[in-house]
Design a protein that fits this description.
Length: 116
Amino acid sequence: MGDAMVFLTNDYGGRPFASAASFGNKFADWCTAAGLQAVECDDGRFRNFRAHGLRKAALYTLYKAGGNVAESQAFGGHGSIAQLQEYIHEIEQDEQAVSAMAKVAAVQVKARTGSD
């Protein structure tokens, strides 16, 4: 472990988590213990909250607040811009979908009211 400081430890002797997956599983346990209910995902399955989802939400918030690629990569701990680009693409796709739906809604309102 070297000189690294460990802030989150497992239940087995206060050691660091062995993997991201083991931390993710423990994070889900903490959410359940806190009374958070499982949420329905895009695929229709219900899942507990996961640390990865929190990381993704934080990156989304940073990007929407004007965070640049270097900040987002450092914040998310991505080893390459290619890994981060998957998140950025998803965020931009969401923004484009919201914008498109607003345009469709505006056309529908205009059609109902007969205004130009």
